[in-house]
# Entry
Amino acid sequence: MEMQNNKTASTASDLQFAVSESYKTIRTNLLFLLSGVTSCKTITVSSPKAGDGKTTNAINIAIALSQLGKRVLLIDGDLRRPSISKKLHLENTSGLSGVLAGFAKVEDSILQVSGSFYVLPAGSIPPNPSEMLSSTAMDKLMEELKLIYDFIVIDSPPLGLVSDPLVIAPKTEGLVLVVKEKITKHDDLKKVLDSVALANIRVLGVILNSATVQEKYADYKNAY
Ligand SMILES: Nc1ncnc2c1ncn2[C@@H]1O[C@H](COP(=O)(O)OP(=O)(O)OP(=O)(O)O)[C@@H](O)[C@H]1O
Ligand SMILES: [Mg+2]
# Structure
């Protein structure tokens, strides 16, 4: 799957009503790619660097899928710089980290955003994200959630900076890679694809994010 998306809405209310045609195309391609999966269909979203548009795309893909009436859970798997709660103006519940640490029950941590669209926020930032994501608690949680939802979309940190997506993706059908038009360097994409291939992870598709928003991300590097 090779797709290009357009500039899209980025506030919660805009997102709910203005999932663009390009996300409908991405949705259709994902449905084809995952048509062999008869139970819950699960994907991980990542990209080479910070600010490539992972979270924006994960949110829009999840909303586009939920608009088919499917029960969709969007998980904030970026336990280092979580941003789904903020982008969707949700409270940050005990979230994924709270559930994995055993502080909270998953049913109390998932928020219903609209109709069939649900979000599990990241929760408090833990000191050991990779360890938490690779725990058996995470495996158990995924098994439990797969019984409830038709789709699970997991947002993650940048592959070029941390290995968390390599831990998350094997728990899903594969990876949707976001690359940023004119920003993502060929070498960086190649490195990411090599590490993904080495880990035997399936790349379901690459989304060319053609956001025109001008922002600086230099300070993001320090957070990962
Ligand atoms: N297709 C798009 N149209 C408009 N704005 C976009 C698009 N994609 C990303 N943006 C904007 O670019 C910024 C970074 O996007 P986003 O947070 O989705 O990236 P990210 O890869 O998840 O970043 P991080 O690595 O920090 O988690 C945000 O301000 C977002 O609103
Ligand atoms: Mg993000």
